[in-house]
Amino acid sequence: MAWIYLGFAGLLEIIWAFYMKKSEGFSLIAPSVVTIVTMIGSFALLSAAMRSLPLGTAYTVWTGIGAVGAFTVGIVVLGEAASLSRLLAAALIVSGIVIMKLSS
User: Fold this and answer.
1) Cα dist. 19→9, 25, 59, 87, 90 in Å?
2) Which residues cross the membrane (predicted)?
3) What's the farthest any 2 CA atoms get from each other in the chain?
């Protein structure tokens, strides 16, 4: 169950990162509220996952899901650059997450 919590925590991290960008520095109310609510949900699920997963594993996987997910949303939704070096960096993050998962 901890891994499911962690997966959903990572998905919420992607959502809050996207809406934080959309909030324009917390100057827009609706995206700011979505950001804060999804942050709280993400942290709550991360906390639940940490009851049975090691700190290093849980935190690494959570931040990795958020980083790669936000990177992907940036490219697909926001039209950010997808250079070879950025794609390679994301692939390295994913490989680190996989290795971390396999070592747990």
Assistant:
1) 15, 10, 21, 23, 21
2) 27-46, 58-78, 84-102
3) 42
